[in-house]
Amino acid sequence: MAKIVALIDYGSGNLRSAEKALARAAREGATGHEIIVTDKPEMVASAERIVLPGVGAFADCMNGLSKLPGMTDALNDAVIAKGRPFLGICVGMQLMARVGREFGDTPGLGWIKGEVVRLTPSDPWLKIPHMGWNALEVLRSHALTENLAPGAHAYFVHSFEMRTADPAQIIARTDYGGPVTAIVGRDNIVGTQFHPEKSQAVGLTLLGNFLKWRP
After folding, report:
1. At what angle are helices 200-212 and 15-29 packed, to 10 degrees?
2. Prediction pTM value
3. Active-site positions?
4. Helix (H) or strand (E) segment spanning residue 24
5. If phi over 0 gives left and psi between -120 and 50 gives alpha, with beta otherwise, what is residue 183?
6. Which of 27, 108, 182, 208 could cross-link to 174 by cystine, CB 3.0-4.6 Å?
7. What distance in Å separates the CA atoms of residue 142 and residue 74, rounded to the nearest whole number?
8. What is the CATH number of the domain that holds 82?
């Protein structure tokens, strides 16, 4: 019987590319996972692990997630109460914060003590949004970053960043006119500011690590 990865469809995210990348990582890693794109809380409740993508504004994404009946309750039960492995991608990562400051203050899921604020690089010539390939600096050992070469590059597209209250929850960062959180996590939850599904070999390695992760 296949192990289910629930890839949540809430109207925001590169679902097709994320689905294909996860399926390839499962196939190449022989993990036996089936990737299911779903907007059903019952599927999230029964999944072995959960992926939340996200593209766009924090408030729009949180609103879209909240409009799925029972979805935030299912997420809190599966991820926080039952400890299922969870991966947030881009805005999906940002939604784990307590609050997003884009277009006013919007409460997030509150799983990570922190806030999502506008990128303010020290170099005025650096463009916003931050778009392109940047090197990852791994700050602490984590299953998600196993077998990544030092200085591995990942693909970023974002105008806002997560700032955590607890620096120990930052797994990796990048530099864009100053340090920017690239991977955040605690316990059974992790998130990437970059897009692993667009990060070629580095992204596939990371997704494969997530599918094998036993927090």
Report:
1. 70
2. 0.95
3. 90, 195, 197
4. helix 15-29
5. beta
6. 182
7. 26
8. 3.40.50.880
The SS3 of residue 77 is helix
Where in the sequence is the domain holding 93, given as residue range(s)?
A: 3-212
Structure tokens at 12: 């925001």
**Measured between alpha carbons, how far is 132 from 176 in angstroms, rounded to an integer?**
11
Q: Across-strand partners of 7?
A: 37, 51
pLDDT in tens, 70-108: 999 999 999 999 999 999 999 999 999 999 998 889 999
For every residue of 157-176, DSSP letters joined together read: EESEEEEES-GGGEEEEEES
Strands 86-89 and 97-100: unpaired
Taking only the tens place, the pLDDT of each residue in 6-38 is 999 998 877 899 999 999 999 999 999 999 999
**CA-to-CA distance for 51 and 7, rounded, in angstroms?**
5
Q: Which amino acid would we find at residue 182?
A: A
φ, ψ for residue 91, nearest 5 deg: -65, -25
Contact assessment for residue 183 and residue 171, using Cβ atoms and an 8 Å cutoff: yes
* Nearest-angstrom CA–CA distance, 39 and 186: 25
Residue 207, number of CB atoms within 10 A of its CB: 28
The half-sphere exposure of 170 on its side-chain side, counting CA atoms within 13 A, is 19
Residue 213 has which token pair? 């992760």
* 187, two tokens: 């316990």
Given a contact cutoff of 8 angstroms between Cβ atoms, the answer to whether 33 and 4 are in contact is yes
